[in-house]
Amino acid sequence: MAVPESILRTLFTPISIRSMKLNNRIVMPPITTLFANADGLPTDRLTDYLEARARGGAALVYVEATVVHRHGHMGIGERGVCAIYDDSAIPRWRQLTGRIHAGGAKVCMQLYHPGRQMTTVDTTTPLVAPSAVPCPVRRRVPRALSIAEIEELVQAFAQAALRVREAGFDAVEIDGAHGYLIAQFMSAHSNKRTDRYGGDLMGRLRFPLEILRAVRRRIGPDFPIIFRYSAIEGIPGGCDLEEAVAIAPLLVDAGADCLSISTGTHANLHTRLIPPMGMPKGLNVEAATAVKRVVDVPVMVAGRLNDPLMA
Question: Which of 3.20.20.70, 3.90.79.10, 3.40.50.10490, 3.40.640.10 would CATH assign to domain 5-301?
Answer without folding.
Answer: 3.20.20.70
